[in-house]
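Side project, low priority. Logging it here so it doesn't get lost.
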Amino acid sequence: MIYRGGKRLIASLAPLVFAAAAGGDAVSCGIIARNAEHLAGLVRAADGILRRDDPDAVCRVVLGGGLFADGGIYPALAERVPRGVELIRADVPPVYGAFCEATGDEPSPDVRGRFMADYAAAAAENNG
C-alpha cells in the first residue's frame, strides 16, 4: 500500500526511520543495516575496479544527500566498506562539481561562498 505513493513518499519517511532507529527500534535498525549493506556492496564493486591495478591506492567515494548526515546511514555504511576506502560527505550540491570543472580549478573561498548563496537563493525560488 505504501509503495503506491511513489519514491517521494518513501523518501519522506527516512527521517522517521532514523529517529526510530536512534531510539532502538529493531525494525528501523534492520532497514538501515540492510540498505547500508546494499550501498557497501556498490562501494566494494567500485573499489575492486578502481584499485585493481594499485591495491594500495585510496578509493575516494563522495556521498551526497541528507541520508549521509550525522545519525543517518553513514555510520552503518562506514563500518561496512573495505579498508582503503575513504568516504567523503559532500557539503555542496552535486552541480558544484560541474562548476569546478567548468572553471578548471577549485574556486577560492569567496567564489565558493557566492556560489552557495546563489544556489540557495535559486533553490528557494524554485521551491517557493
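Brief comment: The first helix runs from residue 6 to 12.
Revisit when time allows.
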